[in-house]
Fold these 3 entries.
Entry 1:
Amino acid sequence: MATQVFTDADLEALRRFPEIGREELFRFFTLTPADVAFVDPGRGRGPTDRLGLAVALCSLPWLGFVPDDVGSAPRAAVARLAEQLGVDPDAIRSYGRRAKTRTEHLRQAARYLGWRPAGALELKELDEFLLARAMEHDSPTLLFRLSCEYLSSARVIRPGPVTVVERVAHAREVARQETFDRLAREFTDERRAALDGLLVVDSTIGMTRLRWLCTGPVEASPAAVKTEISKLEFLRAMGAETLDLSVLPAERRRFLATMGRRLTAQALQRREPERRYPVLATVLAQSATEVLDEVVQLFDQALSARESKAGHTMRDALAERARSGEDRQELLDDLLEVIFDVGISDDQVGGLIRGERIGWQRLRDAQSTALPPLPRDHGHLAALDGSYSYLRQFTPQVLEAVGFSGGTAAAELLRAVEILAELNATGARKVPAHAPTGFVPTRWRGYLDEAAKTGSSTAYRHYWELATLLALRDGLRTGDVFVPGSRRYSDPAAYLLTPDTWAAQRGQFCSLVGKPADASKALAEVEDELHTALGDLETTLADGDGPARLDDDGELVISPLSAEDIPAEATALKAELTEMLPFAPIVSLLIEMDQRTGFLDCFTHAGGKQTRSPELKRNLIAVLLAHSTNLGLTRMADACGISYDILAFTAEWYVREETLRAANLALIGYHQQLPLTAIFGSGTLSSSDGQRFPTRGKSVTARALSRYFANEGLSTYTHVTDQHTTYGTKVIVATKREAHYVLDDILGNATDIPITEHATDTHGVTLVNFGLFDLLGLQLSPRIRDLGKITLHRTGPKSQMTSAFSHAGPLLTRRANLDLIAAHWDDLLRLAGSLKFGHATASLLVGKLSASSRQNSLAAALKEYGALRRTIYTARYLSDPAYRRKISRQLNKGESLHALKRDLLYAHEGTIRARHLEAQTEQAWCLTLVTNAVVTWTTEYYGLAVASMRRSGRRIDDEVLAHISPAHSENINFFGSIDVDIDGDIDGELAQLGPTGYRPLRIGDTLF
């Protein structure tokens, strides 16, 4: 049974001593005086037994067990203990020739440390622990590791690996049965038949219903909306929304859903009912939420696309109107010239206008071409009316299929939605007289008034319906309207910690972020910060010739930041380092980095299967390169000789966002330990920016953006540290605000990088972000375009601020509403706490808060607080050129990584061909992973080259090295034959490394 999880070689490795790191060496192999006394020779022990007992004493807390071959302990550990005991380290070779000696010493060491062997009671407790964990995780190796950690924490000596693996296997089997037992009440005979029906090909759709449910839309069209609605209706007919899976842990539900989406219908049919039905039920319940979200999203996207098209039509009509009015404008100019000529008497004006100067013909022509006055929106809604028939193809079905709710602010709109749904259902055409119109914006009221005045019920219906649909879309975006049963469009209150939970966690949160719970104290601190920052700005402005100054009219003038003065020495040094670095094909680079980081081991089977074939790493490298270079699996199969089926299987079951993130963390963790990394930056500063890629084919994430794409494209939004590594990647719609996604990967940062400050460009800035960053104990440091034109806020009367700061005070043109902030201070903290503790996704909340209307008092309070934080930041930014340059330098690091990614994604002219968000996200993470591998490899070899130079007597300052970027591809070959070792044996590649495990630098014997 154990060999199904681990190979014989793996089991043997689990019985031996592993390699030891420096931190573990000092932590576990340092003897206290009591430890030395325990192995004292006064007990009759010779040097060999003393040293062997000391190894056992230190190995037990380190490993949780003591290997039989104590003499094979790491040489560094033995030498360290021998030095502390004053014995010869070679004495360990003759230790433990009698098994009884080893056993007795282990027993004594365990008793001294308070450890105990794994007896029946201990193993029973381990089984209970494993069952609880197996209900959450199905990976055997993860459960094995958790078992070892549990035994170690309980001070129980780990039994042999086979024993532990067998108990893991037993726990997994019990967990599967427990899963079925908890859901058994859901599996009536009728539901079982319905679930089995998901696996049968339906002739009406040409595929199984399971595959149909798991295939997302690729465009926002009426047909796509109707397809998703039909899925929703199918799921409701099966009672998917009533399935109660809360009895299962969230991780178990995620695992089962992943299995259901990746397994074929035939594979599921072959599984026994106890395993098949929980998988199908989980997919069904998850689909009920996801399909509902898709319906609402497609409604928003399709409606917005037509509104955008109407906007283009309106602008074209305005341009044509301007062209057609040129003659009338010329006539007006001539008329004004006559009228304002003081040399012409009043009784002559009429004759000149009707006669020789203007003439009746021009007047009649102007009158005949007179254009009607424009409505307040310049004809936008009228242009959208041209798409009325198009919208009617799907909007009635959406209103019928989706239920909408909301608070009192949306009551009138929701009543209008109900009336519209009734009109659609009954076929009535006339809007009833009692239909509400209070939600209709002022700019559109004229359409309804004109239609009512003329008695055109058809026009009134069109404009009222369009206004209702647009208001519904906006309400869904702000959260004023929500959809019960949805995840993305649910009640905003559900995104916040409940009052009871918040009351228990308020103190912990305030301590974590350094914010007082008392509003008056918090605002006093903010006011002190503002006055301090304004004091610095006042000094700068008073100087009159600093980075910021006032012109003669009192307007703020910001001097442009001069180009960063990169030392010529740094440029020359980078060229020299580049010449020293070895050349490496990208495949060899990945093999080398895996040898040092083990990042390929992070790719685990989605179904929990753990046996890893010798060829798996070869296949993983091929898949990673297929995605990161944009070759695709078909061309990669041709290039490397591995069959497409093998690559497709590897990509389907091993390469997913979860494993890509884990592999990325392994690379970042290794990069952090390199000597050169700390010179690049402290790791506390990061930045984020979007990079746009063209797309081919239809996709719901693709948008037309003529500034960047010939047709359509998407954006990847990445988070980069000041040490040049990328720790976050997200695919977003190119036309959406990047500011909504700034906090996502900072809060979801699973690395050991303590991010405290974050830089963005103008696209990442909103008042909401300024407020949330500070409430979360972080600093937002953007580079804002047209910074001198933004509104700055003060905390007191204008006269008071002007008196205190004669130069800076007049720039604060608006007073912040401190009373509003104080009234909602606890709610603001609860909002930030909900994000900090992972209760809600930042992008979801930031998007809704940014779009919220003035009626949302919490959003208004957050924006007021954000305005204060922005003012404080602006004052600091303007008064400190070094701070400005630091932000600019960090943003440039992100740009250099963008350039490296463009070099990598070379195939198909860098055009993304994946059509669904999941596939696009996986490709973006593959690109990030390989980019980080290149950065880590380059950083390490830069360090070796610098060390070589310094050994030869060359002086190289760290200040110069800080200007050198490892986002460098000159020494790496991305092109040519992708030769992934067909036999799956990477030893040949590793043999090319030098005796120290590195490739030799390109200078004579410098490294060795």
Entry 2:
Amino acid sequence: MWGLALGCAVAVGLCTASTAAQSAPVEQVRAAGRAVDFTGAWKFALVNKTGEDAPQPDANDPAWRDTRLPHDWSIGLDPVEGPHTGAGTGFLPGGLGWYRKTFTLPSSMAAKKVSIEFDGVYMDSEVYLNGVLLGRHPYGYTGFAYDLDAHTDGTPNVLAVKVRNQVPSSRWYSGSGIYRDVRLVVTDPAHVTRHGVQVTTPDLANTIKSGYATMRVATTAAAENSTEAEIVSTVRDPRGRIVGRGTTRAALAAQPSTATTDIRIDHPALWSVDRPSLYTVDTEVRVNGKVVDRVSTRTGVRYFSFDPDNGFSLNGVEMKLKGVNLHHDLGALGAAVSTDAIVRQLKIMKSMGVNAVRTSHNPPSPEFVKACDEMGILLQVEAFDTWRAPKVKYDYGRFFDAHSSADVREMVHAAKNSPAVVMWSIGNEIPDSSGAAGPPIARKLIDDVRAVDTTRPIVMGTDRYRRVPAVGSPQDQILQMLDGLGLNYNNASSIDELHTRYPTKFFFEAESSSSTSTRGYYQDPDQLNTGENHTPGKRNTSSYDNNLETWTYSGEYGLKKDRDRKWFAGQFLWTGIDYIGEPTPYNVFPVKSSFFGAVDTAGFPKDFYHLFRSQWSNEPMVHLLPMNWTSHKPGEQVSVWAYSNADTVELYRNGKSLGERKFDTKTTTYGAKYLETTEATGDDKTVTTGPYPGSYTSPNGSAGKLHLTWSVPFEPGRLVAVAKRGGVEVARDEVRTAGEPHAIKLTPDRRVVKADGESLTFVTAEVVDRAGVVVPDADDLISFQVRGGSLAGLDNGRQESAENYQAASRTAFNGKALAMVRSGQTSTAITVTARASGLRTATTMVAAIGGRPGRVQVTDPAPGTPVAPPAVDASYSGAPGTIPAAMLDGNPSTYWSNYYLKRATALLPAVSRAHATDWVSLPVRDGLAGSVRASFLADASHARPASIAVSYWDGSKFVPVRDAKVEWATEPGKPTSITFAPVRSDRIRLELASSAPGTAQGFLGVSEATVGR
């Protein structure tokens, strides 16, 4: 469909409605091409947020709103707790919506075949033309089309689309509505059918040795009345030059038939991840010498192999799949497709060293496939997250038996000409695959794929092969049918066992790691796994690659496991980018996005991004963590890590060297060089023998880490890492101590944009001090104003947030926020202004090309509401039921505690280690405080604090009180009394030191606490 000629002129006029509420535009379609963009001049009405069935609102109902497609109604709603929302889908409602479009067709189309194509509607859609049902399409991720028997005499036609998203219909945020493109297709009675051109390059691995490729073009066409036709295919190279032509004859009839021609292409430019060269095939249907239809198809010339012993190769060059999983949401845009947003995401992934994407767990948009074709990113395209057995109440399992065959074929047809696609996946973590129903379903899906395409292998992603399946079991039968298998979270020994048992199948990691992290948050660097902070407002996870659920493992473990096995084709990290929904490890409002990404939802890299960049990118780099060199106490020991692809890194603090750290150069058993330290890692309890028991051990007998470490006493100033190769500096990174927030800094990702009403500019807002250093813990509320365009969405990458994605203001998170700005059509410039109370205002400008004169559109910021500090707070709460509010509820049986127990993983033991210190803060009711009474827990896990330090909030920071005295309780359950010189404040903080840090007995707990005069 990318070859469709989009040259049709569309004129939009207005008709007078019976009420002011209904001023419905009528699109007057003029025939000037094969395809007509049909995304403008729609009306939308959200009938309910529950998904209950309901009729279309009356045409004059004030609920109708002007809408342009693609459109996701859920992303503009507030996240809420309720019976029709949940953490899995980001607390954003679905519901029932109706779309309506009025249009006229000219009389010249009376003899034409007219159809409407939808690339994706989520979900359970019904399409009506002039009140007549055209069809129903339940799956939200595949395209579909209907023929239109529309008026062509000037009478208005009304197209209505009913969309029903009953939540939960997915395990992640799906979006709701007509969220992908829509077009009219206008052809003569003799025409190429939908998806009717297929281009392949048979035997390319051999013909390329002789300097040519055979491009086989199979064209499926039909005619309402039988006719003889000539089908001509013309091939153009990446520079637009004609390099080949083929002609074949076809007898066309109402039943489509396929004609094939072979075209020789001499010295073709091969498509690769580094040079994604694209060819165009122009296919014409000629009847009696007249061209009656023309379709353009983009494709590439390349060959690849998945070898069970040697892994993946592209054009004869062996390489690892350095892949990521990506869900389809685009952050603050939700599911609504935007080419600019897709390209931005993929550019960020490419900069990490990524060369492949798995479309988890559904077919992607055509825009996504097109971007991968153009950017050189390999694709595994996946069909389903569920077969017959559902995973959530309203998912696709309801429709699988009736619709899966058509949907999987549609998936293949839509992307069959893409050079980026190298695998088809028939499902992810399918419950049916373990039962008797699994093999017959798998057989049918495999046959459906091969009915369309026989050139690519068929796989599935699975968590059900962590042990070798029994001979003849459903898992064994399915694997025997598949070409290869994508494993989800298998340890190193299990993949070796599978490789031995199935030597003719290829293996890769369909989901690797699932280590969770929050940008800019750090905890327990000396631990391989650690607990979560359940304090409201602080629900984050550590960026030291050390927050792991029971089924997951660290990023470093996955990288080493993949690296050490030539036969292992590669991995797809779970995930490249945080996505809305599935906020593991938290399941509480308002935590609404995942923690799995190497990059957050705003597109800001986390430390995890730099780990993978150090292993996947050849460009010299070094990255320091923590990225926060501000929020520490003088003299505090800080664990400093460096990720680098250089062998040596030297660390400097305020110009003084703190020493070099070096990686050892090692060699895999198949001869590949790599960098790694040599030390016990302790990250694989399944290893019980050898020189490094309890550690991941490479087949060459070594163990080590993929990062370098220093323990550095904190001193304000500048920390600099200098990476060296052969003693010569090749890269550096630095972190600086920030002062007080002073100003906002705006940085757009481009300086020129098209004034087409669709193009996006991504503007990063940073809170900086007077020296321009980003303040790493700044959370100022920033309001945005746009002239010459509009705000498309705001984000900050924070997982725990109830802010609306499409509001006009957003709090900074760890110093940053993002504005997505949509261009207008009536201005030559877009101006973005950002304001925050107490900070210097910032303005940036982007040139808009092609704008026409008219009134400049202005988006004014809505008044923002700063987030009030909590009445009671704590640095860390170890469990959902032991949060700070429990200290004030008057119930001595409830309590705040920093106790946590992190469950064992497949590779790591359970962990429960008390922090050295934590703090709690309490409200001062009348503004004057001179004492605190606190009842501390003392039991098998909790002990009385070793010491207590008291401070008060002076309006900008916590300041120690004077003359503090502690009178410890002499009996269990009795309060400890703390007195101090009276202070005026609204908050008192108690910093509590553990009496047994690092043990399971030194945790802290407070059942009741009060502040007095």
Entry 3:
Amino acid sequence: MTSVQDPPTAVRTVTAEIDGHSVTVPEGTSIYDAAKQVGVDIPVLCHDERYDPVGVCRMCVVDTGGRVFAAACVRPCEDNMEVKTSTPELERSRATLTELLMADQPPRAEDPKDTTTRDNLLLDLADGFGVARETTELPCGSGRGTDSSNPVIDVNHDACILCDRCVRACDDIQGNDVIGRSGKGYSTRIAFDLNDPMGASSCVTCGECVQACPTGALTNKPIRGIPIRPREELDAVDSVCPYCGVGCALTYYVDRERGAISFAEGRDQPGSQSRLCVKGRYGWDYSASPQRLTTPLIRIDTAYPKGPLSADVRGDSDNDRGRGGSGGNRSGGGRKPGDKRGGKHKPGGLVDYDEVMPYFREATWEEALDLIARRLREIHAEGGPGAIAGFGSAKCSNEEAYLFQKLIRTGFGTNNIDHCTRLCHASSVAALFEGVGSGAVSTTYGDVANADVVIITGSNPTANHPVASSFFKQARRRGTKIIYIDPRASTVAEHADIFVQLKPGTDVAFYNSIMHEVIRLGMIDREFIASRTSNYDELARTVADYPPERAAQITGVDADTIREVARLWGEAGAGVVYWGMGISQHTTGTDNARCLIALCSITGNVGRPGTGLHPLRGQNNVQGASDAGLIPMFYPDYQGVDIDATRRHFEEAWGTTLDPNRGLTVTEIIKSVLQPGGVRGMYMLGENPFLSDPNINKVRKALSALDFLVVQDIFLTETAEFADVILPASSYLEKNGTYTNTDRRVQLGRKVMDPPGQARPDWEIVQDIARRIGLNWTYESPSEVFDEMVELMPSYKNLSYGNLGLSGKLYPNDDPEHSDGTIVMFDEKFNTDDGLAHLVPAQWLPPRELPDADYPLVLNTGRLLEHWHTGSMTRRSYALDAISPVAEVYMHPKDAADRGVAHGEMVRVRSRRGTIELLVRISHREQLGNCFIPFHFREAAANLLTIDEVDPVGKIPEFKFCAVQVEALGAAHAETTSIAGVRA
């Protein structure tokens, strides 16, 4: 059912005179905004154009001829109104107000903002009016105190003028609703939650309040001892956040004297609109870690036979166990010479360099690159193309992803190339490509503003995509209905109109039932179905078997709730579905996504503003890396490697014969290593499969079995312990390149500083290896690589470094010089061969491993707001590690009570694949019979527990469902154990 839009009504206008300037504006426009249009600046303290105006500071008062002055930020213009913005009376009023506010301010020499960024708006006004705190005769109050409980934000209540900008930044922009007011009279001050210390409150440390504050009340603390200085004394570098797929635009302020970043802040861009989260604003110092790799390393002869090197990665529960643990090679000894430590080993959150580095020696770049080229060529010659494989990275740029896949395909003749999309949205891409002919999103996260109803499913965007979630929360405040569907009651549930807490692994049954009801009620878009879809009849027959009563038995969601969701979705004039890895990371992940595609298609919710399909991308460049061909079944831009015409096109472009067969995926490569005649040599660029892949014991065995492994990274990772050669790479901050976010926005990441020591940009390293194996590559810069990519990728047509600008461009884009690009795709046809959406029905299937008496709980894994992926970056960030330093298992109160465990106690979690020990957190967000473990913590690696069963189409592992048991530990076990505590 589609909505009929009312014809647009004419906008009523008013004409006013402001300081002698005539201005005509839409009715309701504030005097402040109208004055800006004619070049008249009115001073403000409480007002910011991004927030709802409140008029509390009265600095912007103007003379409208009335009995009292009017606050320009809230008073609308009226027809024939005459406004004066600067008269002697107004200036006296502002000067007096400034003097009153200055009376309680800290001395200028101690002002938290004037001594750092030097942009205190109140002090600027005071200077203009000739007012100084030291000379005023007004009494100073006794003080309202300070709060330094947050690791990166200082609160000085004496500098606060109660303008409420921080309150509105928290509420109106980020939607976190943490800050308010407490007290009366002089004791009134901003408060966090119920007047808690900021660091103990529900504040998520996004820093939006700091960016909003006009005085020194809220300021950033220096990180790693780098002082915060005025912007004009620092080098501003405009770039993009290196974490999640939202791709927020930011500016790094660099202290060149100290060779470090001083601070970062959000900048304007059509998507993120100056917003940041805690990772983007405070999580950049990992690049300056003293643990950065700075010299090529080669494994020493006595470190063979090869296996893991540290007690943690070996799986030892103490240092007296053998070197191989349960999964490594047991020959070769257990400690480096002279290591006399014994007894229990308590790991930290990072690889122990002292334990691992003695097994490697420093080498020159020439020696390391020559060895890599020689050994990979030898393995290729002996075992053929199938003996070589590469893992790329979604943290690297588009250009680096493109070169890496081109190296593996043209240098070694194999399509055995993959990256972490296999572990996050491979099933989504498979279903989208099959259903609509494109693996990318059909609309942006900001298009939520145009939706009547939004479904957010299998995702925790407040933690995983916090800036995108701020737009979802804003839309809800404006009237958009939000339906949140997930096994966990994450904080998104608190902002939803309907929260559906279904059983894990029952998505297909739930969405089939929603479609059953939409069809039964006649809420389908018959015209859209007839003209723009195929296979509807088969879909209708399938979902007919899923009435709400049957779905309720499967999903645990009552039938009336299913009917309510169906009605709300069916009545929507425009609806969007946003989904995450709770949909994709199942053995039925492709079927889950097929259901969402069908749900949107049968209601006509694709191809119009406020409608569409949006899998929220995980890492900063997982969209771009996939676009660039870093996947085994597609060349760049999702062009099939097994299509003859496509292959011939790339053979001509790259000047060599290419493999006509699809390559192995991440999990298939690990399996192949353990089979005769399988993969024997690997090149890993920025990936850490030891922690990111399922069933770590199996990964340990595979990495130990490889004949030759190259690891190119910025830190010594767990995977690097198995390497023959380790290459020091560049961090995101140390190179130029493009990155494509979840919206299809291609943006420039700009170099902020030089790599440390001998570390080098990844694209240069890949090119040097390519040359050594006989490829004649002569790229001089990433922009040259990008130009070559664009020629081979129709979706990126017309884009160039020159027209991306500061905000990037959405693809596809017919005119990037004048257009931001396509927001809503598929307005006329889909990208499939016949232009139709292919509806693929799915039957519900249970997960592969179900709970039983020995393993009665269902484990779900995922991310925390403060951390990222395997933690190699975020756990080296001061702020992020300080806020969230320890591994925890989240449990329902009754499940914990049944096992005799209390909040904060150590517990053992075991599955059929291994055991870990960690703290328990009692959480009302978990369903009874379910538990949740974040996968960032190597000392309690969740993926030791997970199952390596995969979706048959997307080949993605089932990270979101496996059977576990949680057991209490006695006081003697109060130490955290190693990565494994493994089950042999």
